[in-house]
Amino acid sequence: MYFLAFFLFIAACVQFADPQVFNPIDYGAKGDGISNDTEAVRATLAAVAANKGGEVLFDSQFAFLTGCFNITSNVILNVKGTILASQDSSNYIQVRGALQWQSLVQANSASNITITGGGTIDGQGAPWWACLHRGNDSLHLHGPPCNGLDRPNLIMLAQTNNINIHNITLKDSPILNTHLHGCTNVHMSHITVLAPWDSPNTDGFDIDCSVNVLLEDSFYSGGDDAIAIGCGDSRATSSENVLIRNMTVERSHGLSIGSGTLGGVRNITFDHITGVYLLVFMTLIDY
Ligand SMILES: *[C@@H]1O[C@H](CO)[C@@H](O)[C@H](O)[C@H]1NC(C)=O
Ligand SMILES: *[C@@H]1O[C@H](CO)[C@@H](O)[C@H](O)[C@H]1NC(C)=O
Ligand SMILES: *[C@@H]1O[C@H](CO)[C@@H](O)[C@H](O)[C@H]1NC(C)=O
Ligand SMILES: *[C@@H]1O[C@H](CO)[C@@H](O)[C@H](O)[C@H]1NC(C)=O
Ligand SMILES: *[C@@H]1O[C@H](CO)[C@@H](O)[C@H](O)[C@H]1NC(C)=O
Ligand SMILES: *[C@@H]1O[C@H](CO)[C@@H](O)[C@H](O)[C@H]1NC(C)=O
Ligand SMILES: *[C@@H]1O[C@H](CO)[C@@H](O)[C@H](O)[C@H]1NC(C)=O
């Protein structure tokens, strides 16, 4: 048995050589936090996609001001420095068939995606939050930067498998911080989510119609639900086998399970959620 494990270990080392590194600076990014790096960042992601994977390095001494971009399969987003979300909707693309700007970091139908590095993805959400306060109700998204469409999420991964998000700070998202939809095999850990207590809809972790999700060792302080688990998509079955443990929740509207649910949730466990909820232990099966 030990010999077999050893051989498998060697095989893994041979098969998974260090991924090729792609640096936005090499694609024309300035990384000064002021210049428009959208085109350079998208070019970097296009290059790593053409390579069928690799590591995109947002290096520690830089702040990349960018609009939305897509991540494809087998990509490691290594954020050692800062990604600053543009506050100008000209840097975003409308989601096809939806009245919303595309999420800053978006993956569709991909697999094997890692987001890490110890750095920060800063949504710079203030002007996006202000759209809501201008109108009579949440649908009054007139004026910049919303310009009639709903705000972009910070990270949205849709129909994506084998996701690892760890060791990263997510700050001031325009709306949701991490939105999983139709994803399978997800591990999220050591994530810090920060937003002001009065920032609208800045949920931490939205787990929609996703299966086999482990979220642990993370921190939330923000303006809405720390964690929301559901499945509001009639085509999908449910959110299943979700384990949330060792979370610290400072400020939030709470934990939301099954709200807006069509497909339902099944086998959700919360273990050691501290802060507002001092020591919660709860398992839901066939909710
Ligand atoms: C930034 O660059 C992108 C891509 O070239 C472009 O679509 C956008 O209009 C630019 N934004 C600003 C504010 O200049
Ligand atoms: C991201 O991919 C979607 C299709 O999956 C596409 O519609 C969109 O234009 C892409 N966005 C960018 C910034 O390339
Ligand atoms: C996942 O992607 C990384 C980065 O490209 C690569 O090194 C690794 O081999 C991939 N893993 C699998 C199981 O394909
Ligand atoms: C997070 O990333 C930083 C910078 O790369 C590293 O020094 C640190 O050890 C990492 N922490 C964890 C918990 O992975
Ligand atoms: C508020 O609602 C009223 C009635 O629906 C509308 O006439 C008005 O333009 C709205 N004001 C703003 C700032 O959206
Ligand atoms: C719980 O998570 C925190 C990070 O938020 C970490 O420092 C701590 O070691 C974790 N505790 C356990 C028992 O894993
Ligand atoms: C419930 O989910 C956990 C992971 O959180 C998994 O280990 C367990 O097998 C699941 N139980 C059932 C009955 O599916």
Automatic annotation (TrEMBL):
The active site is at 253. Keywords: Glycosidase, Hydrolase, Signal. The keyword Cytoplasm does not apply. It comes from the Eukaryota. One of its GO terms (molecular function) is polygalacturonase activity. PANTHER family: PECTIN LYASE-RELATED (PTHR31339), PLASMIN AND FIBRONECTIN-BINDING PROTEIN A (PTHR31339:SF9). Belongs to the glycosyl hydrolase 28 family. This is Glycoside hydrolase family 28. It comes from Plectus sambesii.
